[in-house]
Write a structure and sequence with these properties.
- This protein is mainly alpha-helical.
- The chain has one domain: UbiA prenyltransferase (Tetracycline Repressor, domain 2, Orthogonal Bundle), CATH 1.10.357.
- The protein has 15 helices and no strands.
- The radius of gyration is 19 Å and the shape is globular.
- About 45% of the residues are buried.
């Protein structure tokens, strides 16, 4: 059932609820477990519970800001797309100015929590917000937008290490690179749904530029790059065998993801894309974190 438009009474609480639903707040889970993965190979024992809470807050507020800006800047385009016109802004559920105010508030909360982690993280946080906000503009500039989105999510493990330890190590950088490749891979599949719309509106994506078959093959290549990056990260961090079992599990899930939407190679899209995008990719991040944490536990 579609939510009712935000009324003047209880305006902010209702708008926040609509905002959280619109940006799918629960999907913050995608990149968060990989932050945990990065910390398992760089010094998880030294991270306090309070620091974990602040890292979680930073992740949620940064993603909420990024998604909010994306929805706000794309509200005109979303209104023209049959798939996205039911979103909060194009459907008139909430005032755009209020939506933007909530988005900016999330950005300010991210900056505040970043300073709570370290001064370095705090001073770098506005730069990260600019990077995240630029995604909506990137879609109008280049079909490399899928990899730009990947970079946005891939920065999460690296940013966490900088915030907590003031450094960037190669194993963690490789985890971030793996997340970037993985994100680009599943975004390529998700963008199959808008191939024709993107062409009509002059928006840039691999499906609209190179076709659906190229998008699927590039998605497969991106997933392979992710697996290779995780293996190399494990080698450099001198992990145990359980890490590599986790990599194999991730590879199987990603292979199953492509098998699930196999009809897209012929038809150009699939009715199961949402299942593959949301459920299987959430499983990838959670499962790999569990294996990496178990590896550290067994070794300790």
């Amino acid at each position: 059932m579609q939510a009712l438009p935000v009324s003047k009474k209880n305006r902010w609480p209702q708008a926040v609820a609509v905002f959280a639903s619109d940006i799918k707040l629960s999907h913050s889970i995608f990149a968060l477990p990989f932050v945990g993965v990065a910390l398992t190979i760089t010094g998880i024992a030294g991270v306090t519970a309070f620091q974990w809470i602040k890292i979680l807050g930073c992740m949620v507020f940064a993603r909420s800001f990024a998604m909010g800006m994306n929805r706000y800047l794309d509200r005109g385009i979303d209104a023209l797309n049959s798939r996205t016109k039911v979103r909060a802004l194009p459907s008139g559920l909430v005032d755009p100015r209020l939506y933007l105010a909530i988005t900016i508030t999330c950005g300010m909360a991210f900056v505040a929590m970043s300073f709570g982690l370290s001064k370095l993280a705090g001073f770098l946080s506005p730069v990260l917000l600019v990077v995240l906000a630029f995604y909506s503009i990137m879609k109008k500039l280049s079909w490399m937008t899928h990899w730009y989105l990947g970079i946005c999510l891939g920065l999460a493990p690296v940013a966490a290490e900088i915030a907590l330890f003031g450094r960037i190590t190669l194993p963690v950088a490789l985890v971030g690179f793996a997340v970037a490749a993985w994100t680009a891979g599943f975004d390529l599949l998700y963008s199959l749904q808008d191939k024709e719309f993107d062409k009509e509106q002059g928006l840039h994506s691999v499906p609209s530029r190179l076709g659906h078959k190229a998008a699927i093959w590039l998605s497969r290549a991106s997933f392979i790059v992710m697996i290779c990056a995780l293996i190399l990260s494990g080698e450099l961090a001198h992990v145990g065998p359980i890490w590599y079992v986790g990599v194999m599990v991730v590879a199987c899930i990603l292979a199953f993801e492509h098998w699930t939407i196999r009809e897209a190679m012929v038809t150009g899209t699939s009715s199961k894309i949402n299942l593959a995008f949301f459920n299987l990719n959430a499983l990838v991040s959670v499962m790999f974190f569990l294996f990496s944490a178990l590896d550290v536990y067994v070794k300790s």
